[in-house]
Amino acid sequence: MDPPCPPRNGGRLYGDGEPAYADAVDGKKRIVIVDDQRSFLERWKAFLEERYPGRVEVETFTDPLDAVRAFSPAVHLLMVDLEMPVLDGRRLVEVAAAQGVDRRRIVVTSAWEADRLHDLFPKGSCLAVINKSEARQQAAFLMILDSVMRKP
Asked: DSSP of 11-70, one letter per residue?
């Protein structure tokens, strides 16, 4: 189950010189997505805003170094791509945790096989690891998202 086509609203992307939000805006859940593929960011941003209208503030970054400024305990969900130039996703997870992002709110995405991902990220190192192209894992991820959205 892939997220829908690119956004119809031309969603704003962060990491391109625009400031990131310091906390959740107007009580909305703060979701931060870091991926070097702009199309992935645009699809997920639009998908999340459509699935949870008025309930999420989605910040996206193509540059992991820019994303570091957005990491704080106020992040409700952090999605990190494993394979990025400049800064490896494993390192980015460690930086996020060091800056107060709860590991139970970090999801690592990748094109790698699930077994390989679980070897890199053992239980407790993050909330989940998701293969970007496996429909079953994406369906499981949607259940995780719904759970995150129900929590206070």
From this structure: ---SSSSPPPPSS-STT-EEEEEE-S-HHHHHHHHHHHHHHSTTTEEEEEESSHHHHGGG
Torsion, Cα 23 93 54 133, to 10 degrees, reads 170
SS3 content of the chain, % helix, strand, coil (to 5): 40, 15, 45
Beta bridge partners of 108: 80, 129
Tell me the C-alpha distance between 137 and 114, whole Å.
9
Amino acid type, 44: W
Pairing of β 106-110 and β 128-131: parallel
pLDDT tens readout for residues 18-35: 334 334 457 799 999 999
pTM strictly above 0.85: no
Q: Could you tell me the end-to-end alpha-carbon distance of the chain, in angstroms, rounded to an integer?
A: 27
